[in-house]
Specification:
The protein has ten helices and 13 strands. By secondary structure, the chain is α/β, with parallel strands linked by helices. The chain has three domains: 19-97, no CATH class; 118-171, no CATH class; 174-359, 3-Layer(aba) Sandwich (Rossmann fold), CATH 3.40.50.410. It has a six-stranded mixed beta sheet with strand order 8-7-6-9-12-13, sandwiched between helices. Strands 3-5-4 form a three-stranded antiparallel beta sheet. Helix 6 runs parallel beside helix 10 and helix 8 runs parallel beside helix 9 (324-337).
Length: 365
Amino acid sequence: MIGYRFTEFIPEKDQEKSAFDNLLNIFLQLMVITSGDVNEALSWLTNLDREHNLTNPEYGIGDFIDDLKNKGYITDQNEKGEFKITAKSEQQIRKSALEEIFGKLKKSGKGNHRTNFSGTGDEITSDYREFQFGDSLEQIEMTESLRNAQINHGLNDLMLTEDDLEIREKEYKAQTSTVLMIDISHSMILYGEDRITPAKKVAMALAELITKKYPKDTLDILVFGNDAWQIEIKDLPYLSVGPYHTNTVAGLELAMDLLRRRKNKNKQIFMITDGKPTCLKEGIKYYKNSFGLDPKILNRTLNLAAQCRRINVPITTFMIASDPYLQEFVREFTEVNNGNAYYSSLQGLGNLIFEDYKRNRRKNL
């Protein structure tokens, strides 16, 4: 018979890693899923060990817990004596998310975004040009300039004139300020699908990428439910969904406010969501409507999209839902903003966000 027979795939343990390292990888994944609850993660790990024989007679979960404490990944030095993860674990979780999502990336340069402009920039190119008034001494390529002097004046009458000087071109590197908006409304865990965990992983991977590869860029992260508020990168593993509606307006208003404080000319908003806007805050009260697209809420949302367009802030929406009427909303929102939109599965979310981040190579001069 022509075809393939599929069976359950159980990956083998990495023989080059120690028993601790193999368990640590699983533990860090569980920490993201449990929003930083060490006790719950260890309970899940124990159940997984019982079902899949993750440990061996020489090294058990108890040994792993001792190593977590001794190596500084968890601590019980607090008032209640409860296990808590440390800053070392938080950094390792971000690093693991980066390797998981962007692990196939090639290394490059200093980690800033190239532009099509050359001049007094950051990175040396292979192009040369003649000396111009205002060029600094550091820009002069002495080897090429002396070669020109020999050709132009000969060895017997060697002199270096302005016409002999060669300048090595440099490329401008654009600095980009990004605000990442994460939907934490209740729908992010409804319908039997965990959408918040992939969103957290992508946020942590993007944060680690910018910190290590694009240090001149800035990343602000905010979450939005009934309200919107900014969170720190270190808070991402603990992020969880609440009993909230989706106040996209509050998220966009906060994102615009954060970008106003940034001096970079290149600014953008990434929004990860799985639904339509369903909430507004009017004074101290909330206006809510989860049944379809409410014109009052929709118009306020579109007005903010238009405002972002006027100040040259593109919004890229990553819609992790496939409902036709939600896609229609995203299309209208994107057209008003002149931004981008992707209808992504949870598996493809990280690659899409990275590619769009890399694609931003604009530079206003």
